[in-house]
Structure formats: structure tokens, C-alpha cells
Design goal:
Blueprint (H helix, E strand, L loop, with lengths): L2 H10 E3 L5 H11 L5 E7 L3 H18 L5 E6 L6 H8 L2 E4 L13 H11 L4 E4 L4 E2 L4 H12 L5 E7 L2 E3 L2 E3 L5 H14 L14 E4 H4 L10 H13 L4 E8 L1 E2 L4 H21 L13 E7 L6 E7 L12 H6 L2
Parallel strand pairs: 1-11, 2-3, 2-5, 3-4, 7-11
Antiparallel strand pairs: 5-10, 6-12, 7-10, 8-9, 13-14
């Protein structure tokens, strides 16, 4: 791990409990308009979960504690009762196609997040996936906290345990398969400054509008990786942070869906590598280390483990003198 990343991990990684909600309220009031918060839920056929999330945010963070100023669900074409459930729970529901109607919508989550900037007004925009179960409002308070209390912070990602829950079995750290198999290797090898992010593809993050409005948004599943890489290039590592919010429970995709997601993320990375001329492996632009994370059972902190990424290649055997003597 790069020394600057180790330093960043110590200075820019927190837990949701590090900032009590009373301190967030005080910081929000002191910030005035700069402390206004919009929460956005991108949603596509999330009828079973969206209402519970909206209710928790409205009751805990708008009515009991006035931390969130607006709560918007952007529906990207649901055929179930997602919009109805979200509205009944207290969200303002906007259909994706109603935002910027002159521009035909592209399919994908990133398209919805991009358009949501036109449908919200907060100086801080907080994105929360609509498929979360057992939702905890700390997912919101945790990631908006650094933005409310530290003007130097521009973007905050949530980090969490992500168990794989399928067919009645639970694998404690089995979720985030695309993260571990595709996104983390890509980031470590090509953008090693981002190696400290525990959940680089997580859908829960908050940022200042002044940053988001300057970034391109990949329209599909590559949006999280694209925003993180482009934010690094735009504002630098020290303006980025992460907050531990506990455990994320959500529905899991099947293998083919994960494959499509992985391909989109890989293409998003390739476009940025090409744009910045970082595609050649032999010119020092590839960092041959991989940092992975596990939850320490005693301290409950995330612990980093860094491993070398081997890439030694042997020449064709036909070029080895000893072989040619055996097979002239």
C-alpha cells in the first residue's frame, strides 16, 4: 500500500458514531444553505423495500431530527408499485423521463443519478440504493457527517460488511463479488491512491453538488467507479473519505447479471485509462499490489492486507537454449 494511502486511511476513515447527530445538527445550522441535504433513491422495481427506507429517513431525519431537507425517489421505469409505495411513505417521486425530457433517457442507474441533480436542490446530495433491507438511518447520517463538519471533504463513501444471503445460507463476507473480482484489482493496479476504499462500488455515498455537477456520469453500473476515479482526478485524495455504517443487507444478483455488471465496470475503467494514457503495463503506471480488507473480530475495525500481484512471464520455451539442445 502506498504510504499516502495508509496515511489517508488513518485520517479519512471514520465510523458513523464518531459524529453524534447533535453535532451534525449544529454544523448544519451553522452552514446555512451550504448545509442543505437532498437524499436520492434511484429505484427500479423495488416495491418490497423502498417504502421502509423512505419511512425511516422521513421519520428519523426529517421529522424527529431536521437533517434532511428533501427526499426524492427517482423511478427509472418500474412496473411494480415502487412509485406508489415511495409516495405513500413520504417521498417525492419523480419519473426519470420527466427530468430533462428533451433528452431521451438511457437505461441504467447512472442515468438516474445524473438526472437527479436536476430534480434536487441540496448543496449536499446523498445517494441511497432502494433495495436495502433492515435499513439504518446511520447510512445517511454517517456519510453526510464529514461533509457537514469539514469543508475540505468533497465526497464520502459508506463502508460496511456485506454478507451474501442466498437460499437460507449466510456467508458473512461473501457479498460484493464484482468489487473483489473486478473493481478492486482495477483500482489497485491503475489508481493505487484509491486502494483504501473498502466499498468502492457501494451505492451509498454523498458529495457536494459543486463537485457532482462537474463530473461525467457513466449511465450504467460503472457510475460508482467512474465517479470515484474522476473525483480523485478533480479534487484529490484528501478531499475523499469513507465512513463505517455497519452491515448492508440487500438482494443479490445472479451470476449472469453480475457478469454484465462486471463488463460495464471494466469498460468504464478502460475508457478512463485510455483518456489518461495509462493503458501500458510496462511504463510504471501499473502498481503491482492489491489491498484487501477484513473485519477485525476484536476491534471491529476494517484491517487492510496488501499482497503483491505477480506478472512475471517466461519466454517461449523454443527460445531457451537448454530446450533447443533437446529438440534441435
Amino acid at each position: 500500500m502506498l504510504p499516502e494511502v495508509a496515511s489517508w486511511l488513518r485520517r479519512r476513515s471514520w465510523t458513523a458514531g464518531d459524529r453524534p447527530v447533535a453535532s451534525l445538527l449544529a454544523a448544519k445550522r451553522a452552514a446555512g444553505a451550504a448545509g442543505s441535504v437532498s437524499v436520492v433513491l434511484p429505484a427500479l422495481d423495488e416495491e418490497p423495500t423502498v417504502g421502509e427506507i423512505v419511512s425511516a429517513i422521513r421519520e428519523e431525519l426529517m421529522e424527529r431530527l431536521p437533517l434532511v431537507d428533501e427526499l426524492v425517489v427517482v423511478d427509472s421505469g418500474s412496473v411494480d408499485r415502487t412509485a406508489e409505495r415511495a409516495a405513500a411513505a413520504g417521498a417525492r417521486v419523480v419519473h426519470r423521463d420527466e427530468i430533462l425530457p428533451r433528452l431521451p433517457a438511457e437505461p441504467g442507474k447512472g442515468e438516474v443519478l445524473w438526472r437527479s441533480l436536476l430534480a434536487t436542490r441540496g448543496a449536499i446530495v446523498c445517494f441511497i440504493d432502494a433495495d436495502l433491507r433492515e435499513f439504518d438511518p446511520a447510512f445517511v447520517t454517517g456519510i453526510i457527517g464529514p461533509l457537514l463538519t469539514d469543508p475540505a471533504i468533497q465526497l464520502v463513501k459508506a463502508m460496511y460488511d456485506r454478507p451474501l444471503e442466498t437460499e437460507g445460507a449466510v456467508v458473512p463476507a461473501g457479498g460484493g463479488r464484482v468489487t473483489e473480482l473486478v473493481a478492486r484489482p482495477l483500482l489497485n493496479l491503475h489508481w493505487p491512491q484509491l486502494a483504501g476504499f473498502v466499498q468502492p462500488l457501494g451505492g451509498e455515498y454523498a458529495a457536494r453538488r459543486s463537485l457532482l455537477e462537474r463530473l461525467p456520469f457513466p449511465t450504467g453500473y460503472g457510475v460508482e467507479l467512474g465517479l470515484l476515479v474522476d473525483a480523485l482526478d478533480t479534487v484529490g485524495l484528501d478531499a475523499l473519505a469513507q465512513v463505517d455504517v455497519g452491515v448492508r443487507h440487500h438482494r443479490h444478483q445472479d451470476g449472469q447479471a453480475l457478469g454484465r455488471m462486471a463488463a460495464t465496470i471494466y469498460r468504464t475503467a478502460l475508457e478512463r485509462l485510455d483518456r489518461t494514457h495509462r493503458l501500458k503495463a510496462g511504463d510504471g503506471l501499473v502498481h503491482p499490489l492489491l489491498t484487501q480488507f477484513s473485519r477485525d473480530p476484536v476491534t471491529r475495525d476494517f484491517t487492510a492486507h496488501t499482497h503483491p500481484v505477480g506478472a512475471v512471464e517466461r519466454p517461449p520455451m523454443r527460445t531457451v537454449p537448454e530446450y533447443r539442445r533437446l529438440f534441435p
